[in-house]
Amino acid sequence: MIALTWRPLVQSTALMLAPLLGLLCSAMAASAAGLQSELVARGDYLVNGILICGNCHTRRGPSGEILAPQEVRDTALSGGQTWDEAAFKVTAPNITQDKDTGIGDYTDAELRQVLRKGIKRNGARVAVMPSGFYEIMTEHDLDAVIAYLRTLKPVSHAVPAPIYKRAQQHEIPPGGETPYSDAMLNDKIARGFYLATVGLCMECHTPWQSQAFADRLGAGGNEFHGPWGVSVSRNITASNSKGIGDWTDDEIKRAITQGIARNGSKLKPPMSFQYYANVSAADLDAIVAYLRTVPPRD
Ligand code: HEC
Ligand code: HEC
């Protein structure tokens, strides 16, 4: 008797709970999907903004001009610049989801390793790819970049395999040795340093010579050759006479996001203002706040 009444009771409770459980599951799925789309949005913001991945991995215009990510949607990140130097000849590869010519069949672990450590899936150390500047990247931002890369439409475009003539370096800028935590980004100057590091400002604006990060951080002077002729990275230290110490915040922001120098002239490649234009106002403020702390160098 008891068993007979007990069973229908359980069944009917289960029947009553089923829709609730269903709701709960779909709510959980919805919030997981929400988290995933948040991650993808963050990756989109980073990759097409401060990270300037397309500066190298996207083909440029006929005069070597950098095309804004929104101008090149169809071919974005499907392979770009070639460097032919004493130590290597290498082309920035296709990083769309194409399985044959891109990174469609890379695992997340393989992507993490190449992004942060500069080691490709075949064990080779990358040339040019500034992975040492990504050691600082928060776990969340690294996940976001990878999540965004996974959403890229496959584009079939093969680039030549790299030729290495010497062992490649994995240079880590001082202060960028270990991943930042999300909490560290709440401090404005720390956030500015973080963004300027992953955004490669000091990779281009610090002289390419030994000890320069300690002695000549941001002093400029590197030459970039291309169809535009030669451009020379400028002094972005807080020096009043040689750097940007006496520029207003707005002048600095205009140079970063619109490529317009203080005197109104247009900045040449590879200054990547087409990407930095997508950096948020709060992040720009943090970058400027950090630049104000870079010791003046003449
Ligand atoms: C300064 C130029 C440059 C920038 C900036 C750059 N890369 Fe690269 N990247 C390269 C080059 C060149 C290679 C190939 C290196 C080699 O094969 O030795 C490469 C390799 C890679 C690979 C490995 C692909 C493969 O076939 O093994 C991935 C993935 C990648 N980059 C993603 C990114 C992402 C994401 C960003 C932005 C966060 C980025 N890169 C920024 C130049 C760059
Ligand atoms: C890929 C190399 C590269 C990267 C990355 C880069 N710059 Fe530049 N930047 C240059 C070059 C080259 C110039 C000079 C262009 C010219 O003379 O036409 C320049 C010019 C500037 C200027 C103008 C200075 C003046 O005296 O006119 C500022 C300011 C500046 N960069 C700040 C930054 C900041 C901040 C970042 C990071 C968010 C950054 N740059 C990232 C290469 C780079």
Keywords:
2 domains; 10 helices; 6% strand; globular; binds heme C; Cyt_c-like_dom_sf; metal-binding; Cytochrome_c-type_DH; heme binding; Fructose dehydrogenase cytochrome subunit
List the helices and strands and how they pair.
Layout: H1 2-47, H2 53-57, E1 82-84, E2 88-91, H3 108-117, H4 139-149, E3 163-164, H5 188-198, H6 201-205, H7 212-215, E4 223-226, E5 229-232, H8 249-258, H9 273-276, H10 281-291
Antiparallel strand pairs: 1-2, 2-3, 4-5
Bound molecules: heme C (2 copies).
Signal peptide: 1-32
Organism: Bradyrhizobium ivorense
GO molecular function: electron transfer activity; heme binding; metal ion binding
Short description:
Keywords: Heme, Iron, Metal-binding, Signal. GO terms for molecular function: electron transfer activity; heme binding; metal ion binding. The protein is 39% helix and 6% strand.
